[in-house]
Design brief:
heterotrimer, A mainly alpha (356), B mainly alpha (295), C alpha/beta (254), A: 356 residues, mainly alpha, ABC transporter involved in vitamin B12 uptake, BtuC, three-stranded antiparallel beta sheet, 14 helices, globular, C: 2 domains, 10 strands
């Protein structure tokens, strides 16, 4: 019998466990933070760790539940980051900070959802690796377009250019929103660890509940067998679009947290390139494809791992890569799985014999 | 007008390099059915090997390239044997993809450790300065001519190899149906090893040409050309050797023309945009065959 | 009027006439067999009826409505459900979830309710579960409802596929080689199940089968297909003793 490798936390008990783990981790880290047990370097990693966990949750909805490999989620994060940041730049001081942050989140989520929807229309018609490479392409397109974009606002409204700042023809009192490759400067620093964790919990509620619902079952039936799903009347395109859009929206939410946690927001490869999408995909796969809780745990551990290996300085990424390869082979290679089973069986028998 | 031709020739040259990488990519993908994300990094390794032997140890460029080809082949075959083969029948195809990403990280960081992050300036392996046409209005560099020539030569040799030799036929068989090929007595392991050997050797050649045309070398030199070559392979129709060639050339020309006439910052966006448009119109690429699932 | 009326249905794949001028009429409540040697085009007929392929020409009428050219999902909503020759379960879902997925059309709440488990979620899910279990009970699968469907033994996987198709509340059920790969005991049990469905739900069933014992045992009428064309049709006993039909079978490997 094939063992089920895809542990989907189905019942509410499973969901609660996930929330408890997140809340407990948050509490421990908060205590460390307030008792001075945490280095300032580590402190700076908490918010990024959390927003990458959020993207991983969103990406797992796409990869694990919908079964489509996306290599472009950093692009959706980018859309969320910039739309949220621009909203905040435009409204800072004009409304209470809390309300503004919430609205920035709503706007970032909505616009990345729209981006996900529009990109989903052509992309979801493709299969397998073609879909992967096109999502990668879209991610790069988004990053490059925003990187080349100049945006400003004055009394006449929004000005947009792909050439230069001067081409915007802003009035002297106009406000620069995106300064080309220099990006957005001066987004209010609203994000903090607690807010990020609350949003992580929100994304967990949405995704885990979604999986355990009629919509989720429809999506998973398409993943398991598209032709059979059609044969029982499930509108395949609709549900693929739905899952993909939610997934993009969650990545966009992480983007808003990102842009309100950084002094200068730039659309560079370092932040939004395909390498970031791949990094998050690694979290999803190592955490267990389809296991939402696994994504969160893997994101947290793997994000911190290279940083914790900083003592090893030059060797850390090398070690990380070797660990990654080794873990994949040990966990997934049919040969290794067999050897492991035999090994554990022998130990179990040994224990039995010893006891007898 | 002449500047247009200059761009076109430069585009052909870059496109030829993409095509050589894409040929390796498309063969590995078609036969081993895996997206070898580390393929681009093989190019980088090739560049550093030539750099060490040629600029460092003063060997003649041809010898340095030969050594790079040999060492990259060994690297490709070893990587396949150690990291990819154990995962060939894994429950999820993502397993080997993530491993390839691990290999990519490994190679980049290994290079970072040995050579550092600073840019090495690469001396062109082609000493010939090139042709001057139309009273010097159109300059075609030697490396450009050599690149285009070599890519055409490789295309011809590969086509002959695949269609005329027993090993090539075995590759076609494995790419179409691995199980059936095995039943017919084809050694699948050997065939896949050979594919990786060819792909990696091509990566080394591409590296020599790439670094000669764009002579700044860092541990990340191969990553983007690798991705673009994969885009080229998909564009042309994955698994198709002439498709990879066409895809590479189209991509290179569009990239250079966009850089010259539209915006250097938007060139990559345009290149990726072309891929999206082509796949919407032809979901299996320009020369690819659309295979429907049997019900 | 017949429940299913197929008129002059044809499809060509690159010049090959896979199904050629196919006619079929199935009355309501009938158990109808579609037989023929391998490669005769039986599954292609099913694929045409369920919208997997679009016919080159011809008409498909279900209950008097023209459903020609409808897409798969639409055709299920029109009232045709099917199983597959090579079992197509949702293998990472539990047995009960396979059926719940198929009840998708008859129950509903919004995506918002799905994401936050509010509103109609709890009551609908409860109803859904009861309905799914009651369907599974008919097939004797209620005791294994929480098992992953891919972990079921082969015979039960076939049954689950039928249960899933029945859950969509079809007017017509298409079974593609339901007894393939079954031993005689399992086949006998399957025959009982099929008769039971027909009697209990007053279901109209069209099935493809190679097992002649099953066909002669439960089908009232059959159509024989050979090289994409109708070779013979009518009362099962008469058709099966038709010398031309016997020749078609004996001339083949089957």
């Amino acid at each position: 019998m094939m063992k089920n490798r895809f542990n989907i936390s189905k019942n509410s008990a499973g969901r609660m466990t996930t929330y408890i783990i997140v809340i407990a981790a948050w509490a421990i880290l908060e205590i460390m933070l307030h008792t001075g047990l945490m280095s300032s370097h580590m402190e700076g990693l908490l918010v990024p760790m959390t927003y990458y966990a959020i993207v991983a949750v969103g990406l797992n909805l796409c990869v694990g539940i919908l079964g489509e490999l996306s290599l472009g989620h950093a692009g959706f994060m980018c859309v969320g980051a910039f739309s949220g940041a621009i909203f905040s730049m435009l409204t800072v001081g004009k409304m209470p900070d809390g309300l503004r942050y919430v609205l920035a989140l709503v706007i970032g989520v909505l616009i990345s959802a729209i981006a996900g929807f529009l990109i989903g229309i052509p992309v979801l018609r493709l299969n397998g690796d073609y879909l992967a490479i096109v999502t990668l392409a879209f991610g790069e397109i988004i990053k490059n377009i925003i990187n080349a974009l100049y945006l400003g606002v004055d009394s006449k409204g929004l000005h947009l250019s792909f050439e230069s700042l001067t081409a915007l023809n802003l009035e002297p009192d106009g406000q620069i929103l995106i300064n080309g490759a220099m990006g957005v400067t001066g987004t209010p620093h609203d994000s903090n660890f607690t807010i990020a964790v609350i949003l992580l919990l929100l994304s967990l509620v949405i995704v885990q509940n979604f999986i355990d619902s009629m919509d989720g079952r429809a999506v998973m039936s398409i993943r398991d067998n598209r032709i059979a799903a059609e044969s029982i009347g499930i509108p395949v395109t609709k549900y693929k679009m739905l899952a993909f859009t939610i997934s993009a929206a969650i990545a966009g939410m992480a983007g808003v947290i990102f842009s309100h946690n950084i002094a200068t927001l730039q659309s560079t490869s370092q932040y939004f390139g395909y390498n970031v999408s791949i990094m998050i995909l690694v979290y999803v796969v190592l955490g267990g494809i389809g296991s939402i809780r696994g994504s969160v745990i893997a994101a947290a551990i793997l994000y911190l791992l290279p940083e914790l290996l900083r003592g090893l300085n030059k060797y850390r990424m090398l070690i990380y890569s070797i660990v990654l390869i080794a873990v994949m082979i040990i966990n997934w290679a049919p040969g290794a799985i067999e050897k492991r089973t035999v090994f554990f069986d022998r130990i179990r028998k040994g224990i039995k014999n010893g006891a007898a | 007008m002449m500047s247009f031709f200059t761009s076109l020739v430069n585009g052909l040259s870059l496109g030829s390099i993409y095509a050589i990488i894409a040929l390796g990519y498309t063969m590995v993908y078609g036969i081993a059915k895996m997206l070898n994300f580390a393929h681009g990094d093989f190019i980088m390794v090739g560049c550093y090997i030539i750099f060490v032997f040629s600029s460092g140890l003063g060997l003649p460029p041809v010898l340095a390239i030969l050594l790079a080809v040999v060492l990259c082949t060994v690297l490709g075959v070893t990587t396949e044997r150690i990291a990819y083969r154990p995962l060939r029948n894994a429950a999820s195809p993502l397993a080997v993809l993530i491993t390839a990403i691990g290999v990519s990280y490994f190679l980049e960081n290994m290079a970072l450790l040995i050579f550092g992050a600073d840019t090495k300036s690469f001396t062109s392996v082609v000493p010939w300065s090139g042709l001057s046409l139309f009273n010097g209005e159109l300059m075609i560099q030697g490396i450009t001519i050599i690149t285009i020539g070599i890519s055409l030569l490789i295309l011809a040799v590969l086509q002959l190899f695949v269609h005329k030799t027993k090993e090539g036929q075995a590759m076609l068989a494995v790419s179409q149906d691995r199980g059936a090929a095995m039943l017919m007595g084809i050694d699948v392991n050997k065939t896949i090893t050979l594919t990786f050997a060819i792909g990696s050797a091509l990566a080394a050649v591409a590296g020599a040409l790439l670094a000669s045309a764009y002579p700044s070398l860092t541990p990340y030199t191969g990553a983007m050309p690798g991705i673009k070559a994969f885009v080229a392979a998909v564009l042309g129709g994955i698994g198709s050797i002439p498709g990879a060639m066409i895809g590479g050339l189209v991509l290179g020309i569009i990239e250079i023309l966009s850089r010259t006439y539209i915006s250097s910052q938007l060139a990559d966006a345009i290149v990726f945009g072309i891929l999206v448009v082509v796949l919407i119109v032809r979901p299996a690429g320009i020369l690819g065959k659309n295979i429907q699932e049997k019900v | 009027m017949a429940l299913l009326d197929v008129k002059n249905l044809s499809i060509t794949f690159g010049g090959l006439h896979a199904v050629d001028d196919f006619n079929l009429s199935v009355e309501k409540g009938q158990l109808y067999g579609l037989i023929g040697p391998n490669g005769a085009g039986k599954t292609t007929v099913f694929n045409l009826l369920t919208g997997v392929y679009k016919p080159t020409s011809g008409k498909i009428l279900l209950d008097g409505n023209d459903i020609t050219g409808h897409k798969s999902a639409e055709i299920n909503r029109d009232g045709i459900a099917r199983t597959f020759q090579n079992i197509r379960l949702f293998h990472q879902l539990s047995v009960v979830d396979n059926v719940k997925a198929a009840l998708h059309g008859s129950f509903g709440y919004s995506t918002f309710e799905a994401m936050f488990h509010v509103g109609r979620y709890a009551s609908t899910e409860k109803e859904l579960r009861e309905k799914a279990l009651s369907i599974l009970r008919v097939f004797g699968l209620d005791t294994v409802s929480e098992i992953l469907s891919s972990n079921l033994p082969y015979g039960q996987q076939r049954k689950l596929e039928i249960a899933r198709a029945m859950a969509t509340g079809p007017k017509l059920l298409l079974l593609d080689e339901p007894a393939a790969g079954m031993n005689p005991n399992e086949t006998a049990e399957l025959m009982e199940t099929i008769s039971l469905i027909r009697d209990r739900f007053d279901m109209t069933i069209l099935l493809i089968e190679h097992d002649m014992k099953l066909v002669s045992g439960i089908c009232e009428a059959v159509t024989v297909l050979n090289f994409g064309k109708v070779l013979s049709e009518g009362n099962t006993k008469e058709v099966l003793s038709d010398p031309e039909v016997i020749r078609a079978y004996l001339g083949d490997d089957e």
